[in-house]
Amino acid sequence: MAQKPTAPEPTIKEQRAARREVKVAALKHEQTKSRRRRTIAITAGWSGAAAIILVVILVVTTNGTSKSPKTDAAVDGVQTFPNQTSEHVTGTVDYQPLPPVGGDHSAGLLNCGVYSEAVSNEDAVHSLEHGAVWVTYDAAAVTGDQLSALRKNIPSTYAVLSPFPGLPSPIVASAWGVQLDVSSPDDPGLAAFLAKYRSAATAPEPGAPCTGGTEGPGKVS
Q: Is residue 186 part of a domain?
């Protein structure tokens, strides 16, 4: 029986070529692993940077919030008038104190805003019920630059400004069940009162609309 011919031994040149191919393959494999590691490291780095940025944003936001006026802080000089009724009625109501701080009122509310003329008590009290602050002023005592400054200090929502006859002080700020006498537009008590009581939970219906009702006379803004 004839024997199968044996394969010739590879030459030295062929052996070197084979070893070189093995080394090249190993080198390519290592390069691929290295690139993969770099990609993972870069991705992790970006993720870490994004996490740091998020933490910074949260810290800044939290710090900014903490510097806002504390609405739970007491306001010096505030008078309280508890147990205010809140029924809808027709006609006029005999309010005590004046300006009113609550009580029965008309079914239609006064649109919040700045007025140059006196407004309906009954309509304004309905706005107080919804969380508005009603700032009234003595038109003979608060004029010119002081009046301009006062109007500038009134927020654009959930606040009413109007003249009111017979005030006990140049300015009186009222919210549901509470009132503060103010000497001037730059009195810090006014800003504190607005911050504490505007849209506050002490009103019977905080957050209910302050628009869509009656437009009082002399609407400025």
A: yes
Distance between CA atoms of 92 and 71, rounded to whole angstroms?
33
**Using one digit for the tens of pLDDT, what is the confidence trace for 100-151?**
999 999 999 999 999 999 999 999 999 999 999 999 999 999 999 999 999 9
149 and 53 in one domain? no
Question: Is 191 exposed, middle or buried (CB count within 10 Å of its CB: 0-12, 13-18, 19+)?
Answer: middle
Backbone angles phi, psi at 75, to 5 degrees: -110, 120
Helices marked H in 114-172? 121-129, 144-153
Residue 154 DSSP symbol = S
Structural domain includes residue 211: no
pLDDT tens-digit map of 173-198 = 999 999 999 999 999 999 999 999 99
